[in-house]
Amino acid sequence: MSRPLRENLVVDDENGQSWVRCAKCSTTLSPVDEDWKTGCSVVVTAPTTAGPHRQLMLGKIAFEERYCPGCGTLVDVTFLEV
Amino acid sequence: MTQATAVDPVTVEILSHRLHQIAKEMGATLELVGGTVNTTQMHDYMASLYRANGEILATGESMPWHVACAGFTVKKILERFGEDNVNPDDVFLLNDPYVSAIHQSDVYIVSPIHFEGELVGWSASFVHVMDIGAMTPGGETPAATEITQEGLRIPGIKLIDQGKIREDVFDSIINMTRQPQMVALDINCQIAGNNVAKRRIQELYARFGSELMQAVSSEMIKGSEQVLRRRLSGIPDGKWSEVGDVESGENHWRMMVTLEKHGDELLFDFTGTGEQASTGINLPYHATFGCCFDGIVSTIAYDLPKNHGLFKPINMVVPEGTLLNVTYPAPVSLNTTSGGAMAKFLVHSALIQMLSGSEEWRHEVIAPSLGGRLGRTAGINQHGVYYASSLAQPALSGGGAIDGADGVDSSALTYLIAPNIEWMEANAPLLFLFRRHAQDAQGPGKYRGGAGAEMAFTIYNAPEKKLHGVAFGVAGLRNGGRGIFGGYPAAPSVLVHMHDTDVREHLGRNELPQDMEELSGEPEVLGYCTFDLKEDDVLYYMLRQGGGFGDPLDRDPELIERDLADRFISPEAARAVYGAVLAEDDPTTVDRTATEELRQELRATRLGGAK
């Protein structure tokens, strides 16, 4: 059985265990009781990735982007102090 | 108080609506009598009704934390004066943050409502008055290190005694401010609003009787509480936390919250929040509670009657002496738009995490915002009169995106409005170069954040050839909208002081620069500070923008075309951020096939660079 966890992520129940998976390609990120972010591919990008008006942030703050390692869907963006 | 008795739900519904309309009429009266930028142009006020014991009964279109703190104010007035000394047609004033206010500029006026000699309720209002006699014009005082530098502080005073105004007291209060006539107007419009509400409530009591009105009041509160508790019970239990720093230059002040939900009860625990600061970002305990109330009202109870019933499931822990439970004599004047904005952000973020785990509620989650910059100018205006006025623009902020919809553009703060430029220029010696939606500043996403405004102005026809400025609001580069679920954060809200520009030369050629890069000069990004704006200077102001929801590469090409037509995004950002390929013969049309190919390449590129 599959149920939505949040945008682009689902929880799948399989053989008595539950897994956090990508809703698009079903790649498993983690068991449900662990931090699914550890199963993501991570890229650190400049804030200007999101567009102009962010030049003031350059050299001070970056974005930590997490992707599904199977299909490259972006599932999380957080600030990272440089 | 008369004991409540059973009453049918139809009567409750009808009278509940009537009471809410009275609260709205109270606000409308306040605006009609008022005349300052805060009341008539910005709606920086609150007008609500309370039960005899200070419980919230019905709110107008008001800021929730002020609704909460005015209720605490009623309780404090009752404690100080005793019910025997609260007489018909009395009016009380209180603005002490160490009693129940948030900062001194927000002045509470509370009026008891009697019917047949019995205290049956209160009407209460606040206005951010035009000045409060602080070190800095307008109240927000970046240089203050203790509350005694932040203006007059009144722990509760009887301003009108049984219908007779205490003119000596009234004159003493306004005499301690820089704009006595304006502050008098602010206080008088509050009294007028309260009076109208009092008369309407007394009419209702005369028509329906005290017993029925008290029963309806009880049912209204019980109804909100029951629905909220039922909703909370349907959400999985758990624990969620959020952390954030209020920033200004090298200063970082840490705040954090852990939200625990068990059944139908919520506990907001702010343990881990840093010690109180010697800058006025600190929040008193009751205001922090107001932030929790604000979070509930803005999320899981957005559609419920906003009354005391929504208080009841809230529990709170805040260590004393910290940024969110300040002790005397620490300063507070900047708090509503700095520490308070952060506390609201933390509460909202924790609630969003909680709601995301609920199948019923996860689609209603809105990308949160940490607020943005605010400013004020003061000096002699073109009419030769001293003034101190907010820039009054925050209503033009962009809202966070939600599952299925972009954030609202330039109207994120629904209870506020913004003046038109002509009003600003007619009342202050300012000339706006532009005010428009900022392009490419919203947080990108499958659903983008709402676009907020950007603007720039210089001084114009100022007799002293300069104005005094104050920069406050949420400083730092991580303010504004935060992205959720793969959506990006928005660009930061900033105040940039451009020194010694060639703006006068442009004006001499009848040109209004439309891009900051057209101007020469030295930019200075302002933290919490005061500054002098001189004739050749320009102030650039980017309001807060909304955060995005979901992966931008999932955005519908039709929405991208709409954004291109509306100038919310540039063709360059359409390609770089959203992976949209524009038709060669029409840069406002997205080539669907080429776009899908490019998006596949971009997803592969993401993985190629990943760790």
Task: Provide a short characterization of the protein structure.
With 82 residues, chain A is mainly β. In chain A, 0% of the residues lie in helices and 50% in strands.
Count of distinct strands of chain B: 22
Total beta strands of chain A = 7
Order of helices and strands of chain A: EEEEEEE
Query: Segments of chain A where pLDDT lies below 50 for 5+ residues?
Result: none
Strand line-up of the largest beta sheet of chain A: 1-2-3-4
Protein chain pair with the most extensive contact, residues per chain = A-B, 31 and 45 residues
Strand-pairing-aware structural class of chain A? mainly beta
**Which value, in Å, is the CA radius of gyration of chain B?**
25 Å
Number of helices, counting only DSSP H or I runs of 4 residues or more of chain B: 13
Low-confidence stretches of chain B: none
Strand content of chain B: 15-25%
The helical percent of chain B reads 25-40%
The structure class of chain B reads alpha+beta
- The mean pLDDT of chain A is 93
Total discrete domains of chain B? 3
Number of helices of chain A: 0
Strand order of the largest sheet of chain B: 2-1-5-4-3-6-7
Q: Estimate the mean pLDDT confidence of chain B.
A: 95
Strand content of chain A: over 45%
Oligomer classification: heterodimer
